[in-house]
Amino acid sequence: MPARAPKEIAQVAAATGAKKTRRTWDKVLVSGFLAGAYIAFGGLVAIVVSSGLDPETWGTLPTLFTGATFTLGLVLVLVAGSDLATGNMALVPLGAMRGKIDVGDVVKNLTLVLLGNLVGAMFVAFFLAVQTGVIGDADATGTGGLTYERLASIAEGKALEETAWQTFLRAVGCNWLVCLAVWMSLAATTVSGKILAIFFPIMAFVAMGFDHVIANMFFLPAAIFAGVDIGWDDAALNWLLAGAGNLIGAVVFVSTSYWYLFLKDQPEDEEERTEEPVEPAERG
User: Fold this and answer.
1) How far apart are CA 114 and CA 74, in angstroms?
2) SS3 176
3) pLDDT tens per residue across span 259-273
4) Which of 1, 6, 29, 277 is the most exposed place for a label (fewest CB within 10 A)?
């Protein structure tokens, strides 16, 4: 089967977003937990791979390595199947714009998915990043010390050095790219095609230092658990600003734009009316 054309992507995205709201709350929470954990896995491997690279020698290449390895997170989300709030911020509102669901369905879905994402990301941060010793502490030597320094640099940059306006704008840019990755993955009909569609937008947003609220739900708690000098109030403020920016990036620049281009005043396509379950690789 050939790749879907842009109009077909929009139709499938609207149908997928609507179907996401028709599952029971417990399945949404479990799906959200898995996605939060998957993004955390991406964040953890990105820290390990990019730690110990002296900027004086490597320049900005560590950010490229970080971005390239972080793509693991969204690959797991979309190919294995789970619900990521930042992807749902584009798909679920599009279902509402298409008249398939109402605003209440959108709010309920995003709330449950965000909660599941937070628990999943923090689970990996505490048990699999810090308690395992993969992330060391301030007194650690060897690889543990290197991963601690890399995590501390990332977390302090996001929680303490960015202004509120910078965090918000970086989050807008981040989720514009993340949702384009999800969007383009719907064009592909093979696993390899989906992975290729995911790789470049995700690598780009990480390399540019943009803010992804779910990734920050891993980086900041992991740093706090490891003893980095940032507070939960710093983390909460970052999540609020990043979440708001991510929502704007998804709804304004992806959902609304493509609804206007391809779905506004257009009758429902047969593919949109089907009630078959969402394919795992189409979940975002």
Assistant:
1) 15
2) helix
3) 999 999 887 765 555
4) 1
